[in-house]
């Protein structure tokens, strides 16, 4: 019998999860979709699925074996806690919560649950951990085939910042991916961070300083950097290069047709993250469903990972308010 | 309810299909596996599946909604005809049959079936039609964004020829992919072909002349070429470039880590076709299963496509025996 | 004392040679420029140089130590013979002559001169032999680091055919570069050739079939191919890949800024051959001048090389008039 | 008449200049070579040149029209001042001097000379300004075809640090190239800098922290970064990417044969800077000689440029001794 999944939130990301679960994942079906906008829920849901505007109804439904939380960030923590009460496995889109307080509350609740019942219900949607390029880069790094890693250079660019974006939300919503992936790549926690920025693009509005440049020091001494540019205009770009003692390894350039026309050799750069990470989203969902089928622990990022990324984000925000000074991360 | 698939043949390709159907395809489960070697069947099958050494038992089982034929080429036609009798949808790995006679027999049987029952049961496993690179190349070609196509250049290299490979089997087993894909890309049938070869590699044995070089003329006048090199040693390579009136477009170079070490920038080239076409196999199976779920015609290559590729292969073999002379393709 | 060079022909190529000799070559100065159009000669010549409309005056001048012939193809043979009479070293732009008869006459005259005086005066301007990419490709091929070469694939595209271009002139003027470079790369003479074409571009006029596709068989059995596309519109492209027994080597993609803008990663492709072969022209001229300074034989292509390329071109033209049949090259 | 050049210092760099001036530069000849080691001078000098162990003899010789200083860094300032006294044009390899005091003394002496005689005698060997990639990058940046530049990311890696290298000498000898090129690219002076490092390579010895990571803020607000890694082992690498408001542009990857062998696609990375910057050195020398021939000001970096780079280096060293704090550059 397929795992019956309820999806909360039918926006861009939720709709993508629904489509994946319904059409490209082995062993799953979407039986219930919740969205504050019932029309949006209906548009995204497969024909056979139930629809609601009340996520609690979905979480507690006997038609649902597992839940995906893809609703607004501010609702994540509460919905995850409801899933705990219902003893339902949940895959929560990043971030775990917009505040550290809530993130910690969730992680503590999960620890209590684990102690009381032995169940681990929460998985975090840090899908880059399933991107084949990142996986290969991590394997190469861990195998030390080029000696010890010394520096890591990341680039993260999107076409344009969302409405109301600020330098802080750029950290908690976008840089959060690198805040998760860098210690995962290095297998070493980040101890201190520094946030910097120079001239901002004409497309930056409000208090968003864009692009930013961040530095992270790992416990093993590795220095990592991140250029984060939300309003890069030209296309979506994710890069990561690990510089080790006798060699370097970098994520592959995404494959695209090699076109020669009008005096140029060119290849298309996608406008958003979905083509770039389509495999990662699919493989993450499949790993989650397959683990549920087998009753095994899901090999996804955990609540603790989500909390750690939020703690790193908090450190980065403190640096941003301290004129870029290196700031210890408080775990 | 998932589509219950029986897989005939549990060799490299069959095992790959079983793994895909069991772990990465939405809406399918493998319920039955047949192989002359019962141990091989058992090793490849999921725990819940039945096992047999008799493919007819599988085809006629009430546990099977659809069949994948991945057994020895010489068995394809007979098994497909059995599926027709059982009115069971079947995905047949290429080639449809090693002989034109058998291929034609199957296609005629399917036409009779279609006339009698309205059913189209046969899909062919020309998976490159689902490779995202080829799909993009075909779209660009059909959109005529660079004017009319004029020449197409293909390269197909494998690490080593299988045991007993001959210049003929190199055409019917390997070049067959390009014989299918070139007219599909151009949307124009191939009218004549020429087979050529120069010096052969020291790794060629028997009557295999390797590498070969083939030319194909399409009805629309486009000239296509194919370098086919089975014993290329260094790795698996598939290339295709379409040269049009004011530009060119080529398949992307497959993505791999960009490594710099010991005086070289390098990236890995896989040793066989599975990593290169993993997406294509998965997407082809998914398209087949999804069509079966919806009761729609499968968007895969058809028996007619399989026959046409075999007819092209026959023309190429006639040219090979005519000192490379251009030879009309007889459809 | 610098070598005093007289340049005959002040068109695009002649002006380029004058500029190189005057501003980037060690040990040379341009002292005399001849062109039927005196104004064009004056515009291209350095201020201190003499000007004439009579090339014989230049060849026989005591102000000239060596001559570059870059005038119309039809004048090449006659001017080279005049240089022989004047005992003046001469660098003749390709082709040696438009007809085989003239080419052979020049080569025989040079042989007589060599027998009588020991002097080798003629160098041919096949500049690709000095392109660092081709040089590296030849070294790798000759070192057999990948075993024996088996196939060679060349691509030659220009933006547009010159006025009055025909399928024949495309061979004698453009393909001539590959007709020289392929046997030079392989160190094996070409024995037979085949000329083919498919659909022609809408930009082809007169009897020009464009693009064409040529096949060449070397004495060592290697099969070489050439796509020649004069009206490729998009830019100038030269490619060459040598396929050997356990690996392949190809000319590098020319370096250009890596630009990302408007949804595309792109790099510029030059519109003509000069940027692509600027190094080759410079290095060829320098090698010629340095040899003259030292009184050593010039390491450039010889008259015999020029004759052989013309003989290959003749074979290709015979194939073109024989419906693409393989045609023996008559040396 | 060619410009007669005297070269002081016949080490790796001096020998390269001698070879270039003798064999690939128009209008120059090397007439005099000075080195403390007469044998080394003789080995590097062309046969017709004089040899000395006394640089003053060379500077004041009537056989010398212009001087190249490529001796030990500690001798640069004194030799340049001697050239001023002799009123001889001089091309001084970087750095102008190891200390700011000396650099300033030279620049002041040159200003006095200019005031007194109108002569500008000093050119600095910042050859990257003549690298075609950097030139194209600067043109694109200045044309603002992608809007205002916002960040610049540089990478500079060498195979191994020289004997006795320290974190300071890594700045004054290696990073000095980027300290010159970044403000040149941006056309905006650097106002403050920060030096950082993480874990050092096992190949670092003494007080060398390697790799380092540097940040530079330009007056126009652009933030530039530099990864400097002397012991990178794998090969020589120079990268530079300019991130602007609606696009990015980066130096091209150097051209090298594209080789496929043993499961890898690879291209060679040179072991030192000479192949990477061969064109730049040649074009710089040619620009210097051509200007001398015409009596025009040389379009090379000036003494002021050399001084500014040293001032930046001093700021960077102060940051290094201030735990990485941003440090104002004192001009």
From TrEMBL, chains A, B, C, D:
UniProt keyword annotation of Aminoacyl-tRNA synthetase present: no
An MF annotation (GO) of this entry: nucleotide binding
Enzyme class: oxidoreductase
Record protein name field: Myo-inositol 2-dehydrogenase/D-chiro-inositol 1-dehydrogenase
Sequence ranges assigned to domain GFO/IDH/MocA-like oxidoreductase in this UniProt record: 134-249
EC number(s) stated in the UniProt entry for this protein: 1.1.1.18, 1.1.1.369
Residue ranges constituting the Gfo/Idh/MocA-like oxidoreductase N-terminal domain according to the UniProt record: 3-111
Pfam families, A to Z: GFO_IDH_MocA (PF01408), GFO_IDH_MocA_C3 (PF22725)
Keywords tagged on the record: NAD, Oxidoreductase
